[in-house]
Design goal:
Rossmann fold; 13 helices; VC0802-like; nine-stranded mixed beta sheet
Length: 381
């Protein structure tokens, strides 16, 4: 008998003949998550198990953040041959509880001599005989004792919900335009949840943005990396590009042109990372550069599809997700962001692509993007 973590997955079961590939990918991601906590990870009979964990609570916290995991629980694993031993263990697990309880059995091994209902009734009766202060309530119990009969017997009383989704790495690669704000970390998290490996680029404009703003973004990346199983962040210098746009282009088009330069540099980084899409945190109508016409002009500079998972969400909904995934407090730190540098008083909300292209002819686009790429900084989180 020993304590193990039992990890459940949901959507992976829908993958038909490709299911073994997704199972292997999920096991690898879980193994990455608990590497620092020790232990062994294996797949058996529709569950992922982790044994030999040094710090159970930390392992549960980490595994619950792994995309593809539906829930995780600390379970007692024991031989299933002696049903009386299973009953005794059930009593020990319920001994510290009070009030009502319910036994919920699941018999995966159909050769087992008792069916699920018989297991429920037998363990329930045994428990009542040995813990007379407890009562049975099958509708709203204070404690649910779960028993799973698989290759071994597993007993547990608490299930921690996890993030769900698909294992990272199972659905391609994309590059996130990561600002220090609330929206873009949420957007990257949502796309990674669909199994996409995410890299990121942040645009840094010293002296208008400080080292603290860079550190803030790397902190956000560190939070995201727990679910993304690591993330590579590129810091792109953007000061020269912003100055040139501010000095040479029409004021009401500067924000839009700046966004198009970000797309060009992100395209080049995506190519380095073998990514086939970009991710942004834009939402329709949230700011002037996010009107439908402005987004169309921005996308014209992209060479790959642009994923915008927040496109139909309002700020309250985005903040709710940011709080849930742990990025909100860091995003709210009051450090500068390059998007606030040289902000025009009246940005164009109904831009014309012909005007954008005419304004960009005043700039040496190839040279500006080349110099930015030559000075990239790279961080792995």
């Amino acid at each position: 008998m020993r304590e193990v973590l039992m990890v459940r997955f949901g959507e992976v079961f829908l993958k038909g003949l490709n299911r073994p590939y997704f199972f292997r990918m999920l096991v690898e991601r879980v193994r990455d998550a608990v590497r620092c906590a020790g232990g062994q990870v294996w797949l058996s009979d529709g569950r992922v198990y982790i044994g030999g964990i040094l710090d159970m609570d930390e392992a549960i916290r980490r595994v619950a953040k792994v995309f593809g995991v539906h829930s995780v629980c600390k379970a007692v694993e024991m031989e299933k041959g002696s049903f009386e031993a299973i009953c005794r263990q059930a009593v020990e697990m319920l001994r510290g509880c009070s009030g009502s309880f319910k036994v919920s059995a699941r018999r995966s091994d159909k050769r087992y001599p008792l069916d699920s209902q018989q297991i429920n009734q037998s363990i329930g009766s045994y428990t009542l005989a040995h813990l007379p202060g407890m009562t049975v309530d099958v509708h709203q119990p204070d404690t649910v004792l779960s028993v799973e009969i698989r290759d071994m017997a597993y007993l547990y009383t608490h299930v921690a919900p996890a993030v769900g989704g698909m294992p990272v790495g199972s659905n391609g690669r994309a590059t996130l335009l990561l600002s220090g704000g609330i929206d873009s970390p949420v957007a990257g998290w949502m796309i990674a949840k669909r199994g996409v490996t995410v890299s990121a680029v942040h645009f840094h404009s010293p002296p208008y943005t400080s080292e603290r703003s860079k550190e803030k973004v790397l902190r956000l990346a560190g939070i995201l990396s727990e679910s993304m199983c690591g993330i590579r962040v590129y810091i792109a210098p953007f000061t020269e590009i912003q100055r040139q746009i501010h000095e040479k282009c029409a004021a009401n088009y500067t924000t839009l042109i700046m966004r198009r330069y970000m797309m060009r540099i992100a395209n080049l980084i995506a190519r380095k990372e073998h990514a086939s899409a970009l991710i942004t945190g834009e939402s329709v109508g949230q700011v002037a550069s996010q009107t439908m016409l402005a987004l169309g002009c921005t996308d014209a500079a992209a060479e790959v599809p642009v994923f915008r998972p927040l496109i139909g969400l309002d700020k309250h909904e985005i903040i709710s997700v940011a709080k849930r995934i742990g990025t909100f407090e860091v995003s709210c730190l009051p450090y500068e962001d390059c998007c606030t540098v040289f902000t025009p008083r009246h940005p164009a909300t109904r831009p014309k692509i012909e005007t954008v292209l005419r304004e960009e002819q005043l700039l040496d686009t190839e040279a500006l993007t080349a110099r930015a790429m030559e000075s990239l900084e790279k961080f792995d989180r």
